[in-house]
Specification:
Blueprint lengths: L5 E9 L6 H4 L19 H4 L22 E4 L11 H9 L3 E4 L4 H9 L3 E4 L2 H11 L6 E5 L4 E3 L5 E3 L4 H9 L3 H7 L1 H16 L1
Parallel strand pairs: 1-2, 2-3, 3-4
Antiparallel strand pairs: 1-5, 5-6, 6-7
């Protein structure tokens, strides 16, 4: 998993409440267990018309937001089914951070295991960031995980909450497997001792 320390990128506004995982990545894309290629299906029912052409009204299809790395969304982002494909699709598209006032628990946990930072802010701060994200070509935010701070294009900053352990894992690029591998030498030593006992 890639480390997350500081991210400066275009932020796309998604002023929608209760964005569920089916909206993030529809069920027809769940046939794969590969983490790559899912970016093509991200928000596909919003991004594309029925004939497959792009919906020009959807924010990620607008020129200023095509390379967005941050989403600013309303309450309860990631609700619905527990599909891990949702953070996979976000990451494959290039989204490294989602900012909201609240997240569904399973989606929130899955984000940390896949290198996507879900940043919780107050309702008041969300509106400030939503305004910043609505500036088109100037919609650039900086997310600083070390200081737990999000800075807007005018220099204003808001704080976000995160558990210290999750913060440590994100900054060091550690998912569940990575955490295990940190203890690789201890595991090897233990197995060696266990083997010695079995033969003695």
């Amino acid at each position: 998993m890639d480390k997350f320390t500081t991210l400066t990128g275009v932020a796309a506004p998604l002023p929608i409440t209760n964005i569920d995982t089916d909206m993030i990545i529809p069920k027809q894309y769940l046939k794969t267990i590969a983490r790559t290629g899912l970016g093509a299906g991200l928000f596909s029912e919003l991004r594309f018309n029925e004939d497959g052409t792009e919906n020009p009204d959807f924010v990620l299809n607008k020129p200023a937001y095509r390379n967005a790395q941050i989403l600013v969304a309303e309450d309860n982002f990631g609700c619905g089914s527990s599909r891990e494909h949702a953070p996979w699709a976000l990451l494959d598209y290039g989204i490294r951070c989602v900012i909201s006032t609240s997240f569904a628990d399973i989606f929130y946990n899955n984000c940390f295991q896949n290198g996507v930072l879900p940043a919780k802010v107050s309702a008041e701060d969300l509106q400030k960031l939503m305004d910043d994200a609505s500036r088109g070509a100037n919609a650039t935010l900086t997310v600083d995980l070390a200081s737990q701070e999000i800075r807007g294009p005018d220099g204003g900053a808001v704080k976000f909450e995160i558990d210290e352990f999750r913060k440590h894992c994100m900054m060091n690029g550690l998912d569940a497997i990575g955490l295990t591998m940190v203890k690789e030498q201890k595991i090897t030593d233990f197995e060696a001792k266990l083997s010695e006992r079995a033969w003695s």
